Amino acid sequence: MKSYFKIFVMAMGCILIFTAVGCKPGHPPLGTLVPMSQVISEYNSNAAKVPRLWARANISMTYREKPGDLGFSWGSTIGDPNGLLLLNKTANADRPQDFMLQIKELGNRIGQLGTSTVDGAYYFWLNFGDTQNCSWGQLKFAGAPGITGMPIDPTQLLAVLGVCELPADQTRPPFLGQTICFDPPAYILTFVDRQPVTKQLKFRREVYFRWSETKARRPFMVKIFNDLGLVVLTAEMKNYREISQEDSDGNEGDAKPLMPTDIKLTWHETGSELHLVLAEMTTAEKFDPDAFLLYYAIPWPLPSIAKQVDMDVDGPRPLPLSQPKNGDETE
User: Fold this and answer.
1) CB atoms within 10 A of CB 130
2) Dihedral (C-alpha) 242, 60, 111, 235: value to the nearest 10 degrees?
3) By CB distance 3.0 to 4.6 Å, which of 14, 113, 140, 287 could disulfide with 124?
């Protein structure tokens, strides 16, 4: 009888211990949650203050063929900047924007990725040492099934900058849905859009917003899905800093827009990584909009070796090289 009593006391003690340990949740009180409309409104209010963006970048890259490989690394996130990031928003916040990320060495471009809404194209090229390649695709087919051959898809990067508006109308695609994560504490906004060609509604990405009683609701992680619903790219964002609001609308005394300045992207299939540290962010008109045209964005002789990644979707197309309207050379 005593042995049964002893076992009972020990069991009750364990229950009390586990209860005491587990009584404090690892997330804020449920009463602090807000509806998705408020999360989107706060985010879009900040993003709308950024009609364009110019920023210096420190870039480091590690290329791997498969996870676990030592890989090949280049660049650094400290020291002199070795990159430049440009963004020029178009009228439709739900659709592609003009964007580019230049990769430099000794002041010369050795690589670049970006989008051109005038040319309706996105691209990636690298001209470094013995490596010389160039890939491009049509923006209207970005995300279509069966597209391969784009080492870094620039249409994926815009979602991690924190300055491009999210859809406010949830009655038609593209739209968002919200779920709550306890670990880590987060609002997860899932972006849904029609897939090119198939027209099927697909989950495209998840954006994780901080859920906290003391800190602002800002994105800290983005997960990008492929056609099968697998996470193929994860971006982690931190160190939010102010963007200088030059040459843009805004009342004196208004809070300046913020964006993450430390962005790390990991491709799960290969384990390759891209790390960006941004500085000197400004909305000033420091670039010519013609700079996004493929005519300038892809230097010769790379257009002659450019590979079309969506050839199987829409047949072969010539690389679009729209001529600048004013005929002037961009800086």
Assistant:
1) 4
2) -60
3) 113
The reported pTM is 0.87
Mean pLDDT over the full length of the chain: 88
Could you give the CA distance from residue 32 to residue 182 in angstroms, rounded to a whole number?
13
Tell me the pLDDT band of 23, cut-offs 50, 70 and 90: very low
Give the Cβ contact number of residue 182 at 10 Å: 12
Q: Which residues contact 267 (CB under 8 A, 6 or more apart)?
A: 232, 233, 273
pLDDT in tens, 232-245: 999 999 999 999 99
Q: What does the pLDDT look like over 112-133, one tens digit per residue?
A: 999 999 999 999 999 887 788 9
- Whether residue 25 is preceded by a cis peptide bond, meaning omega within 30 degrees of 0, is no
215: burial class by Cβ within 10 Å (0-12, 13-18, 19+)?
exposed
Distances (CA, A) of 141 to 92, 237, 315: 17, 27, 12
Measuring CA to CA, which residue among 165, 184, 160, 162 is closest to residue 274? 160
Residue with tokens 């384990």: 271
* 57 and 277 Cβ atoms separated by less than 8 Å: yes
| Structural tokens at position 39 | 């999360």
